[in-house]
Amino acid sequence: xxxxxxxxxxxxxxxxxxxxxxxxxxxxxxxxxxxxxxxxxxxxxxxxxxxxxxxxxxxxxxxxxxxxxxxxxxxxxxxxxxxxxxxxxxxxxxxxxxxxxxxxxxxxxxxxxxxxxxxxxxxxxxxxxxxxxxxxxxxxxxxxxxxxxxxxxxxxxxxxxxxxxxxxxxxxxxxxxxxxxxxxxxxxxxxxxxxxxxxxxxxxxxxxxxxxxxxxxxxxxxxxxxxxxxxxxxxxxxxxxxxxxxxxxxxxxxxxxxxxxxxxxxxxxxxxxxxxxxxxxxxxxxxxxxxxxxxxxxxxxxxxxxxxxxxxxxxxxxxxxxxxxxxxxxxxxxxxxxxxxxxxxxxxxxxxxxxxxxxxxxxx
Length: 364
What we know:
- The chain has 17 helices and twelve strands.
- The chain has 364 residues and is α/β, with parallel strands linked by helices.
- The chain has three domains: 4-103, no CATH class; 105-281, Rossmann fold (3-Layer(aba) Sandwich); 291-355, Arc Repressor Mutant, subunit A (Orthogonal Bundle), CATH 1.10.10.
- The protein starts with a helix and ends in a 9-residue tail after the last strand.
C-alpha cells in the first residue's frame, strides 16, 4: 500500500526530483506528516506556502479521505518505492511519485507497446489503429494509450477485441475524460488497467496531459504514432519516447492531409516507417510471446489454403475468402471456425477477417 507521505507529496504536486532532495532528511517519508514546521523549513525544499498547504491537508483529512476512496473503489495505489512499480517507468528522468491503478497491477510485467495519434482521426486512421492494436494484442502485447478521442479510443477498442490494454489518464480515476469513454474505461479496467498519477478527483486540466504522455511512453518499449498534426500531443509522446530511449514508429500518410504532417515529419527525422506488423516486430529488442505457438501449428491442406488467403491481406471479407479458396460451403464454414478456435484468424468486424500470426513466418 502507498505510504501517506508519498500521497502528501503528490497532493502538493511535488516531482520526483523534489522528492530526491527530501528523502535524505527523513528516515521514513511518513515523518513529513508529524514533523515540526521548523524541521520542514530546514530541508530547504518546503517553503512557507508548502507548509501552509500541509497544515490544511492534515486538518481537513484529505489523505484519509483519499485512502477511503481507494479502498471503496478497489483501486491499487503504488508509490515509486513499491516493488510492483513498473521498472521501465522508474528509469525515466522524472517518474511519477504515485500511480493509481484500477485493474491488474501485474500488467506492467508484460511487454507494453503504445499506440497514439490525433483526436480528430480519419476513418483510415481509426481503421489502422484498431487493426494494429488488435493484431499486436493478440500476440501478447499490452497496448497502452491515453483514452482520448480518435486514435487512442480506436487503439483501446482494438486491443480489447483480442487482448489487453492500459489507459493512462490526464485526470484522476474518478474523473474519466472524455466522459463518453467512461464505459470504455470500465472495460479496460476489467481486461487490463486504467492508470493515473493524479489524485482521484483531479479534473482533466490542460497541463496534466504532457505529464500523462511521459507515462504512456515511459511504461512502453515503443510508441507507434498513427496520425498526428504537426503540433499535437502524439508528437510530444514521440519526443518523450526518444528521450527515454524507446523505439518510435510512424504510419506514413497522405501528403495532402494535415494529420499526416506529424507522422511524415517523424519518419523524416528517423522514426521507423511502418507498413506492416513485421516492421514493428523487427525493431523491438525482445521476442514476442505467443508467436511461436501460433505459427507452429500443423494445418491440414484445406486449412492452410484458407489461412494463407487471410494472412496475405490486411483484412478479407468472408465472401472473398470463400471464392478464392474454391472450397465447398460446408467445408469452408468448418475450416473458418477451426482456424478461429486455433487462434490463427479472427473476425474483427462482421464478415471481415484478419490473421493473428505474422506474415513472414511459416505454418506447416
